[in-house]
Every structure is written in structure tokens, then in C-alpha cells.
């Protein structure tokens, strides 16, 4: 991100930042507006916030709308202009004046967020892990999107047929599920093998991950084809009235000696960073540009050595990192890169100082 302008987003009434540096650190006390600035970048990249409903309305209380603009790094000489606007008329999200997301692979801004609840990826519902896997796969295999939409349609029809008790109609949807499932699984397996290799290379830096393995569960038994698994599951699916197996059940887990690894919050945060880094390396191996990383209070929950090791990996990447840091002075802390760091200090939603380091 080269520049960022934020108007009426939460506490930030009007903020303009020159952010063209490999590492950008946003410092400030609690509630100063640090996460809000990361949220602004996220809005530009994804067109939605990463904060749930509990964060309340995003537009500054008493104002009519929110505007975020940013020029991002790209091959074009002046970068490219991203814009997000939201008011009572609706939402507008554009790239160089054209609707976002752009068609095809023309995505100049891909981001990776490590937020306050990164651990939930490992501990939460399998859907989170499946979505994470597919989102990362999608960047190198855009056809996955159409397959997933088709899968969702087939599963809906199949569930309806199961509730009606089966019959000839069910056989049609069984075939559909089996064909689609094998295709989606094939794409996932290729991505996963590559991703797992990268993950293990990175995990070697952290002794707590000795002997840990990243495993993929495809959603039906490894030794069966999906068609066979569908036959085996027939009775259970008819009695439950919905699909119990298939690519819609896939996920991944981190295990040791066959059991899911129990991790502390700090360890889980490290693992999530490594999973994201490994995914980015797969993308880089396939010729994609580096992502922009948003690290919200990365120091929280990590001891000095662990943070040093992690930053040793994150800080070496080619792409940009924007970090937030709880500090009452513009002290950039340990996550910097010499002569390549900009620090912005925020108080009450406004930038009070900026400096290069
Ligand atoms: N719609 C809104 N209008 C005005 N202020 C808002 C709105 N939504 C949230 N806020 C305020 O914005 C602040 C939240 O800012 P933010 O989460 O960016 O802080 P932070 O600097 O990341 O803090 P912490 O270090 O505690 O996480 C809070 O003080 C909150 O009350």
C-alpha cells in the first residue's frame, strides 16, 4: 500500500497516510484506532470488514458514510487506486474506477490477516479450515469457484432427495456428487501436498512443532472411492436426511502421533502464521505476487524468542507488512526492518506523528 485515506471509519474521522514502506507499524494506546486502520486496508482488499457485528456500525457515529481510498503497489507506474465507499445508498468498491473484484486474475491486492482471534482457525468449526484451504487453493486454481458452486447445488438437491427417501432421483445426485467430489478432491490434494511441504519447512524453526504433521481429511475414507463411500453411507444418510460425506466435509488438522495437537494460544497463533506463510509460498511458487500482511497486535501472547523467530520469517518476505502495536509512544518495537520501516502513532482516531526508521 503506498497511500491510505480513511474518512469516517469508526473513530477515524479523516486520516491520510503515506504508507510506501516494506514495514509499517501503527502504534497507539487501547482504543486509539490502530485496528481501524488495518480494517480500512482490509475493506479495500475484500470489500467487507473482518470485524463481526459486535463491533457495531463502521461509520463514525453521527456521520452519513464511510470512504476508504488507497493506492496499492502494482506494475502500473502510479500503482492502482482502490476505493471503498459505504453510505445509505449502498456500497461501492472499485479498482481504478471499475467495479471490484475485477474479472480474471487481475487482483493487485491480496492480503493475509492475523487478527485477534487467529487461533479459531485451528480450534473452531471444520468449515473454517475447509474455507481457508479452498480460499488459498482458489488463488492458483480459479476453476474451483465454479466447482464449489455446483457442489452446493448438487448437495441441496441430493439432500432433498434423501429426505424424500431416495429412489431413482437420488441415484442421479449420487453420481453428480461423486464426480464433482473426486474433481474437487484432486485439486485440493495437489495444493495440500505442496502446502504441507512448505509448512514443514517453516515449522522446523519451532521446537514445539517437532514431530507434528499437517494432515488432510478429504471427507470420506482414504481407501474408498467417493462412489463406494456413498453406498456405504446410504443408510445413515437416509435416516439423517442429508449428505454426511464428500468434499463438503473435508478439512485439515495438525496432529502428532495420530492425535490432534493441543496448543497454547501463543503456539496456535504461530501455527496460523506458518499456515499463511506456507500458503503464500505456494502462491509465490506459482508466480503470484506477494500478499500484503496485516498483523493486528502480533506481539500479544508471544514471548520474546518466539516473536523473534516468527518475525525472522515474516520480516524476510518480499511483500509489505502493516502491523499494529499497543504503545503510548511511537516506539516501533521489535518487528521492524532497518531503513525500511515507517511508524505512525495514533491517538483518538488521528495520526499524531509519523517517522521513518
Ligand atoms: N461507529 C463508531 N463511531 C465512533 N467510534 C467508534 C465506532 N465504532 C467503534 N468506535 C470506537 O473506535 C475505537 C476502536 O478502535 P480500534 O479497535 O481501532 O482500537 P485499537 O487502537 O485497535 O485498540 P486496542 O489496542 O484496544 O485493540 C473504540 O474506542 C470504539 O469505541
From TrEMBL:
GO cellular component assignments: cytoplasm
Gene of this entry: recF
Keyword terms: ATP-binding, Cytoplasm, DNA damage, DNA repair, DNA replication, DNA-binding, Nucleotide-binding, SOS response
Segments forming domain RecF/RecN/SMC N-terminal: 4-322
Family: Belongs to the RecF family.
PROSITE patterns registered for this protein in UniProt: RECF_1
Protein name per UniProt: DNA replication and repair protein RecF
Coiled-coil annotated spans: none
Amino acid at each position: 500500500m503506498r497511500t491510505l485515506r480513511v474518512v469516517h471509519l469508526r473513530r477515524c474521522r479523516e486520516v491520510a497516510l503515506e504508507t510506501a514502506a516494506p514495514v509499517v507499524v501503527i502504534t497507539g494506546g487501547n482504543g486509539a484506532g490502530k485496528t481501524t486502520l488495518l480494517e480500512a486496508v482490509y475493506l479495500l482488499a475484500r470489500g467487507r470488514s473482518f470485524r463481526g457485528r459486535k463491533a457495531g456500525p463502521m461509520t463514525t457515529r453521527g456521520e452519513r458514510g464511510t470512504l476508504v481510498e488507497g493506492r496499492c503497489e502494482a506494475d502500473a507506474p502510479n500503482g492502482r487506486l482502490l476505493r471503498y465507499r459505504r453510505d445509505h445508498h449502498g456500497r461501492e468498491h472499485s479498482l481504478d474506477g471499475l467495479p471490484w473484484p475485477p474479472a480474471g486474475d487481475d487482483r493487485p491486492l491480496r492480503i493475509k490477516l492475523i487478527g485477534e482471534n487467529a487461533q479459531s482457525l485451528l480450534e473452531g468449526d471444520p468449515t473454517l479450515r475447509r474455507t481457508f484451504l479452498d480460499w488459498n487453493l482458489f488463488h492458483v486454481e480459479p476453476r474451483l469457484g465454479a466447482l464449489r458452486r455446483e457442489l452446493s447445488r448438487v448437495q441441496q438437491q441430493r439432500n432433498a432427495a434423501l429426505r424424500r427417501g431416495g429412489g431413482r432421483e437420488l441415484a442421479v445426485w449420487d453420481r453428480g456428487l461423486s464426480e464433482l467430489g473426486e474433481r474437487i478432491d484432486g485439486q485440493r490434494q495437489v495444493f495440500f501436498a505442496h502446502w504441507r511441504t512448505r509448512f514443514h519447512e517453516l515449522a522446523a524453526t519451532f521446537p514445539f512443532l517437532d514431530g507434528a504433521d499437517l494432515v488432510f481429511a478429504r471427507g470420506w475414507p482414504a481407501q474408498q472411492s467417493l462412489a463406494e463411500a456413498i453406498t456405504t453411507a446410504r443408510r445413515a444418510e437416509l435416516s439423517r436426511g442429508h449428505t454426511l460425506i464428500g468434499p463438503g466435509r473435508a478439512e485439515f488438522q495438525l496432529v502428532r502421533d495420530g492425535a490432534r495437537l493441543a496448543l497454547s494460544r501463543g503456539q496456535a497463533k504461530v501455527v496460523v502464521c506458518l499456515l499463511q506463510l506456507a500458503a503464500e509460498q505456494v502462491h509465490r511458487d506459482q508466480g503470484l505476487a506477494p500478499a500484503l500482511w496485516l498483523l493486528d497486535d502480533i506481539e500479544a501472547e508471544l514471548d520474546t524468542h518466539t516473536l523473534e523467530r516468527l518475525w525472522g520469517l515474516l520480516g524476510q518476505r518480499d511483500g509489505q507488512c502493516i502491523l499494529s502495536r499497543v504503545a503510548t509512544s511511537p516506539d516501533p518495537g521489535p518487528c521492524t526492518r532497518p531503513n525500511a520501516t515507517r511508524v505512525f502513532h495514533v491517538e483518538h482516531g488521528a495520526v499524531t506523528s509519523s517517522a521513518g526508521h
